[in-house]
Specification:
The structure is a single chain. This protein has one domain: Vaccinia Virus protein VP39 (Rossmann fold), CATH 3.40.50. The two termini are about 30 Å apart. About 30% of the residues lie in helices and about 30% in strands. It is of the alpha/beta class and about 210 residues long. It has 7 helices and 7 strands; from the N terminus they run ααβαβαββαβααββ. The longest helix has 14 residues. It has a 7-stranded mixed beta sheet.
């Protein structure tokens, strides 16, 4: 999920609860395309974490593949919708309401971590979040990440309006220097993820492995 403006995030939980407080799913119910393309990184029945999972589209899909999935989000309204989505698909996901600092991070417990459009994070929070994501991976585990690049400020089809929240190849290589980067790709595509992400977009995707 992504911040609409910095000012709106003096109370991020309230902001996201308001954005999720509609019957429709803000980012749709289908999995993110980058995640779907690179989910074969994980062997069957892996233990995965979906970071800032919103209304559950990615975690529920991963659970449907047979993975054991943990997921968290700051918005209790979003998590409630995610639980309903999981019930509709008859899958089990271990959901938690938590922000990126209060989530119960543990060391080396996951075969995979999923971070799709977690660009609500300012540079300070982002550094803590990325560090926890790396720490939580088991050796040999894979991180699958997608975000927007600075060119997205021209398209404005989703994502934050804050340059400091956007990703470049150099930033990701620096922040994930402890991982072996298997794939790092900047590209453009037209995406249709609910009303929240819709239209031509400037994207960056990464797959990285913990040594």
């Amino acid at each position: 999920m992504n911040t609409p403006t910095s000012a709106a995030f003096s109370n991020p939980a309230d902001t996201w609860n308001q954005r999720f407080a509609h019957d429709e799913f803000l980012f749709g119910t289908a999995p993110n395309a980058w995640l779907e393309a690179h989910s074969p990184s994980w062997p069957p029945a892996s233990h995965l974490l979906s970071v800032a999972d919103g209304e559950g589209r990615n975690s529920v899909w991963l659970a449907g593949l047979g993975h054991r999935v943990d997921a968290f989000d700051i918005a209790e309204v979003g998590v409630a919708k995610a639980r309903r989505l999981a019930a509709q698909h008859q899958v089990s996901v271990n959901f938690a309401v938590a922000d990126c600092d209060s989530f119960n991070w543990q060391e080396a417990v996951y075969e995979g971590v999923v971070a799709i459009f977690v660009q609500f994070a300012d540079p300070e929070l982002r550094q803590r979040l990325f560090s926890n994501m790396v720490r939580s991976l088991k050796p040999g585990g894979f991180l699958v990440l997608q975000g927007y690049t600075p060119k997205q400020l021209e398209y404005r089809t989703g994502g934050p309006p804050n340059l400091s929240h956007l990703y470049t190849e150099a930033l990701l290589r620096d922040q994930f220097a402890a991982l072996e980067i298997v794939l790092l790709q900047e590209y453009e595509a037209e995406i249709h993820e609910g009303s929240g992400h819709r239209g031509q977009s400037a994207l960056i995707g990464m797959v990285a492995r913990k040594r």
